[in-house]
Amino acid sequence: MDYRRLGASGLKVPALSFGAGTFGGSGPLFGAWGSTDVTEARRLIDICLEAGVTLFDTADVYSNGASEEVLGQAIKGRRADVLISTKTSLPMGDGPNDSGSSRSRLIRSVDDALCRLGTDYIDLLQLHAFDAGTPIEEVLSTLDDLVRAGKLRYVGVSNFSGWQVMKSLSLADRHGWPRYVAHQVYYSLVGRDYEWELMPLGLDQGVGALVWSPLGWGRLTGKIRRGQPLPEGSRLHQTAEFGPPVDDERLFDIVDALDEVALETGRTIPQIAINWLLQRPTVSSVIIGARNEEQLCQNLGAVGWSLTADQIARLDRASSVTAPYPYFPYRRQEGFARLNPPAV
Questions:
Q1: Whole-number Cα distances in Å, 319 to 48, 112, 187, 238, 322
Q2: Which residues belong to the active site?
Q3: For the NADP-dependent oxidoreductase domain, which residue ranges apply (predicted)?
Q4: β-pairing, 180-186 with 83-88?
């Protein structure tokens, strides 16, 4: 396993990390992902650790805390061998203080997560969404208190816009509060919006990307094909409405390109899609999920080899889209690009 620094921090994380969204799965979204119990989770974690995957990602909102509980029980006795990443800010109830990133909510959420995880510290806490109703100074000063208390080691965010990250980093620098070192983002061959603004920001500010849904919300499994109905067992029947939209024709063009590379490399489509991500700037770790050992072992096969420059270029062409304003001039006009060349 390749290990990379998490952004500009000193923490090294594996190129692949494991997403525990399937642990204890319940409800229309997480239940469709999977419902891994503690016994099954222990086995999946065994396989991960044997392969060098030491970072496990979860969130309080995953099955209303059940994911954290199952993960905590599954790592019991080997806490020192793993890194735990969890997230908070999304609603955990209907009360006025059951969502957001206020001082009250953050302190309570961290304490609750520590209890569910059965640990006294969290390696990486990420804010799951930007809370426009809470002053950023309140958020950052609270995170500073939690780091100083030893409850958190590092802090990051997820699903933030560029200005939200940058304003937070500026205030952190001004007051000496902890900087965000990670941004958990949606990024895949079918979803390249991360490249417009967040990737250049990450390069400039030392914010590492933890990639969620690297297979495009389940669309890059190799099972979805042009002219064929959605497979009966696809979780997209239950979860498509929760995920990002994808143009079908563009998806099929990408799958065609993946098919070509699969024939050349002897690798599966998911392995190629993940390996492509591992070659991109700022990517610290790609979060893989699995409902069973077979899926996990297949995804682990995405490391230990590399796509050629030609193969990457073909996948880039098949998946490219026109950047929105004000980004497209820097990609399409030489004069703009000379002043501010694209990150990729």
A1: 30, 41, 12, 25, 10
A2: 62
A3: 16-318
A4: unpaired
Contact call for residues 44 and 288 (beta carbons, < 8 A)? no
* pLDDT, tens only, 206-263: 999 999 999 997 889 988 777 666 656 655 535 556 667 788 899 999 999 999 999 9
Domain boundaries, the chain: 3-248+270-308
User: What's the topology of domain 3-248+270-308?
Assistant: TIM Barrel (3.20.20)
